[in-house]
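ok so for the tutorial part 2 we go from a plain amino acid sequence to predicted structure tokens. step 1 is just haveing the sequence, like this:
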Amino acid sequence: MTTRDTLVQAALERFARYGYLGSSIQQIADDVGTSKSSVLYHFDSKEALLEAAMAPALDALSALVESLPELRDDKVAAAPALVTGFVDALMQHSAAVSIFISQRGALQEVPVIQRGNDIVDAIARTLVLEAPSTRVLTRLSIGLAGVAFILGDSLDATHEHPDPAEMREIFIDTLLELCMPADVRAAGTVA
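step 2 — the prediction. this is what the tokens look like for a chain of 191 residues:
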């Protein structure tokens, strides 16, 4: 692993655990055992470091968005695959997800956070299979925030965590329940 990769990983972990605003370049340097000037050699700013740390998650979620036009034709049939891909991306990139979902209010002016939120919003709008009312969008937002909270909490090594496979299944089932119209769920169209 290169110094740059090590810095990105340390920044991602620190930003997820302590918040972007609660972290400094010096703390990230200390976490890695290097100097602040070494961090600044690789990254112009803390924001540039955040962008590099968020890039893999945003790229994975962007790939989902790129597949959305073909999914819009039959949302009911496509919803399980989209939700599964979305949950898998969230779980694979839990630290980044924790940052841009749980810190979105404080970081709304930071371009990389806005990009992440725009991607999640695009996926959420596609997942809403009925008229996107305030009630439906709020329910889905609560579900997404809940998933982000649980994933962020899984970064805390001080306590035991549920089985990831079980949590994946729960996340998928819950998000499908939140985005599918009640009549579609009742008819058993989606498993």
